[in-house]
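Record pair follows.
FIRST:
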Amino acid sequence: MNTVKYSLAFYIIIFNLTACNSTADNTYREWKVYGGNKNRIQYSALNQIDTNNVKELQVAWVYNTHDAEQGTQIQANPVVVDNVLYGVSPKLKLFAIDPATAKEKWVFNPFTDTSTSKTKTKGISNCRGVAFYHGTNNDSRIFYSAGSLLYCINIIDGQPIRGFGDQGSIDLHNDLGREVQHLSVTASSPGMIYKDLIIIGSSVSEEAASAPGHIRAYDVHSGKLRWIFHTIPYPGEPGYESWDDKEAYKHIGGANAWAGFSMDEEKGILFAPTGSAAYDWYGGKRLGQNLFANSILAIDAATGKLKWHFQTVHHDVWDWDIPAPPILVTLKKDGKDIDALIQTTKTAFLFVLDRNTGKPLYPIEERPVPTETDLTGERLSPTQPYPTFYPPFARQVITEADLNRMVPDSSYQVIKKLLASYKTGNIFNPPSKHPTIVSPGMQGGGEWGGPCFDPKEGIMYVNANEITRVLTMGEVKKEQAVSGQTNLEAGKLLYGKFCTGCHGEDRKGTGDYPSLVNINNKYKEDQFKALVTTGVRRMPAFNQLNEPEKTAIASYILGLKPKQDIKFVSQAKITDPYLEIPYTSAPGIVNKTMVGRPSKFETPEGYPAINPPWGTLSAINMNTGKIQWKVPLGDYPELKAKGIRAGTENYGGPVVTAGGLIFIAASNDAKFRAFHKRTGELLWEAELPSSGFATPAVYEIDGKQYVVIAAGGGKMKTKSADAYVAFTLKTNR
């Protein structure tokens, strides 16, 4: 009898454990949220596709949005809700299709929506996904951003819900506490739904004149502002004392949560990563630690009140925004389960914190860093935080031993001489007028796709860039247009003020930004001026320029000879707007500012100047701190033919599944791949219409598992495309 009782108890325990695991798995069987789930671990419990049958994957469907053109991209991670897949096109159309067949249900085009007069706020920005609100009584709705407008869309017919905001949308320029209509404000990442709130971050210009990156929560039904968190604090708020200029909140921009959020829904805590304060590479006008820039913020999702913060870079002058939301996980330490968060960074540091308190799980040391600078008015932080338990997942310091030896000796001598002339040797070497190595680069280390995490095994998988940049600073003097100037002369001056930092003095681009030479073949004057007004993707809007100024810069860049000789007439002075701001904390630099000129460190052949791998995928055991494996991600065909797996620059994140697979595109060679999660072995790859600079989604329809990736290309000189491609097994197993 006792044996029967004990056996029965044993089976009850096993049943309960199985039920618990099943319940946990159920939370990861759907893809209703950007990144798969609100804890952002990009994990799927579906296992129909596994390491044994992944080679049998075939294309299930291709959906073309028919609006790609040169330079457009798709960075969206689609969601699947109630047997409908929602995604965003290269030109920001929102669409709904059948996730098993790609049959179109509806398409919303924001540029043909004439219900508002706010068309001027619509520019082609990146939109990485949507937020779905599950309402009652047919009240579900989708939120997504097109340019500066946050739309609320009816899931039935794909039309704006006119009772929300201003006839179905909110202008993200509003509710920021100061006039920013002339500045760029968009939202590249979708907001986070919490109860009846849509919480939204923003993408703003990284130039000297930029909007603040405050985080806002709106009522999902009315569009009314419910709370705002000031990422550049106001007097009396936490963090205000970290700015030497006590009026920084009136004119400093940036510190924005452009990468999106993660959420502990049970505890009602929103986790927000922020970028650097503007201007990116010069901090002489924003002296101090600059909270809450470059910080992980834990915010009460219901009230907007700060619970805790952790700053990953003090007084950032390297453009080391936190590029992705922290992932929320459970880790083992000293035999105990710890509610933790893991933050990947562009520096390739991993910050692992207790998500209830913000305290590091393992020591993070404040170490002395270089502070000598030749930039007038600059003052660097004397220390920076260094994690000690988890190793960096990409190279941080470049030496001669790292130089690319695959090129001819003549090319090697060129890059060797260049490296010897650069300032290097420390990841925190400050920018200067002398060319300075930034490694990992401004798009190095972890990027916006974020990592994925296997909750059963405690392993995190992260893709990384190892593409070194060189940054050189130059001084810009205060000038103004004088009577007698022509449009050509004024246009050159305007270009020098607003464009050289990205496109170079010769207009040939700087590696990360395109050439403007001969773009008169692509743009007419009115098209170019519209582009300057609205901005496009990484290019901010320059609404501060008036019509004569736009005409002058167009005449210079487009070579409009009939207009170049016309006398320039404008009531406004052509100045750097930053110079007009009084800086009582640094009066000696009122009439000076700095501009950064970044470029890639490359060989004469156009390859990265350091040895491969240039793009990687790593598996890191987050309980032990050990890197389990690391493999190249992506190929250069001509190097692959020689047996060299070099890896490529990559954008978009991975997904890990219970079938033992990691799915990732991201590389610039237009391939979609599946790796074995335990060994890093490449098990499968497929050709895409163009590079998939996006994160895949994994879902199940009628018992059949699918994985879908947006293939939009458009970055790194890849061709632009307009395809979403879904894969499934040839037969069910």
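SECOND:
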Amino acid sequence: MKPHDPAINASLLHTANVALRRVTTAFTTKLLLAYCCVGILLFPLYQYQVNPDGISYINIARLYSVGDLHDAINAYWGPLTSWLLVPLLLVNLQPALALQLLSLIFGALTTIATIRLSSIFILTDRARSLALLTAIIIILSYTFFASVPDLLFLCISLFYLSYIFAPDYNRTAISGVIIGLLGSLLYLDKSYGLYLFMAHFTLFTYIHYLQSNDRRERRIVLLKYVLGLSCLAIISGIWIHSLSDKYQHFTISTTAQYNIKIDSLGSQGQPMHSQGLLPLPYPSAVSAWDDPSRLTVEYEKSPRLRDWVRWQIFHIAGNVFRTFYYLELFSVFSIVIVLIYASYYFISRVSKAEEGGPTRERRSGRRSLQLYWGQDHGKLHSSVVYSLVTMLLYTAGYEVLHVESRFLWIDSILLLLLCAHYISNSQFCATCNVKLRLLMTSIIFSSFCLYPLMQIIIHANQNRYIYITARELHNNYHVEGSIASNDNGGDGWDLTLFYAFYLDSKYYGATKKSITDEELQRELGKYRIQYYFSWDDVCRLSECRKLADFEVEFLWTTEKKHLIVYQIRNVGS
């Protein structure tokens, strides 16, 4: 065989990969231990960390723990996080503490997944060590970001990519079951995972099929695809059947449908901020946010085609702009690295494809793709191109919906590994001396640490003061029951929900911003509200009896909000 025979290259890559894993075992063990130690030390600073989504996941977990499966089955919130919370709640662990402990565990698993994925990239020992140390800081910031399902989604995605990116992907078919299981977990965590997995797994099956050297390998690739989809269909099908049975119509999830309405032409935004007090979706719910699919979103249902197209263009353009902004937050070098690889690799692949046959005209479409994807250049091909394709596919789905930094966490890890790969390349700073090259390496990796460190600092002791004042309201004033609030600019709803959560109470939402005293009295009576939280305002109703007031403090900002808690007396229904 020729020296550059793909079979020889694949064998060498496999041997090198095994050797590399043996060498790095001690280092990665220390790395995981470092994450656990730092995470445990920082844990007390974030024990009160919770957000509205987390409260809904906790309440759903409570329903599962008491056996209320009918109300627990939810078409908006994925069940996986709540299922994993149940054992912690059954041992009477404080719910917010249990959620943070679960997040710490997910962070450790994400660290393992990052280490596993990094072994596929060609990296120098120094670049690998710096990349994984940087990843620890990034993952710690995600651990304490109070977005547990997004961290779990990142963890599962990285494990899935470590199988899909593997150089020996077309050797055995049995791992297709594991891939299908991971795809099912992505769906059970967030509904977006089902669409992402189906598109990504199908695309990469096609790519691996074209890269296969013989009929046996192609059969393995196809069998792996069938096994993966079969496993996905069985596990996901059970959950889809449960949802459809509860809601009396076929549904995979209501999350995408709800978010599309929120971001539609003429939308008034989240109903909680514009529609006043809202009924609870079921008796044991904390707020209407426990099942948003029950909410009615106001938007323009029959817009003119021209207006709809124009709005969609501006909407997607805005999301693309925010995506670039978030990528730059991950690192100021993000876009530069992507452009370097995109221009270098794809241009070189096109030129190689054109040299692969006698004439361009004689080549069929399939043969062109085989030439494009089939030439094996080792780990450079699998780690770089696969990462770029994954980032593009993963991010594109959010462009038509809504983009937030937590939705793009997988991009931050892939960008970090791409940077480490580029630094390991001999062409990186080729004209620099050793000291300058080391300086440039330090600057690039440090750029990935700035935003995570800022997040770790900012979120320290967040909600601590709310927890303390909630305990005071409970112990000194015995506040517990049905709660409503005003909405001073949109954050009154979120803040009062935190109080309702810590007070083990029901929160019926915030009243409309422009509401008369008579309307307020009717609203409070309609829902039999017992306590009214007024932010930076006063209640003028004679039925309002002032219980307490607080200056609610927010760490790392100069902002303070004045809260007055009223007890509502003699409000008729």
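COMMENT: The chain has two domains: 24-254+307-458, 464-568.
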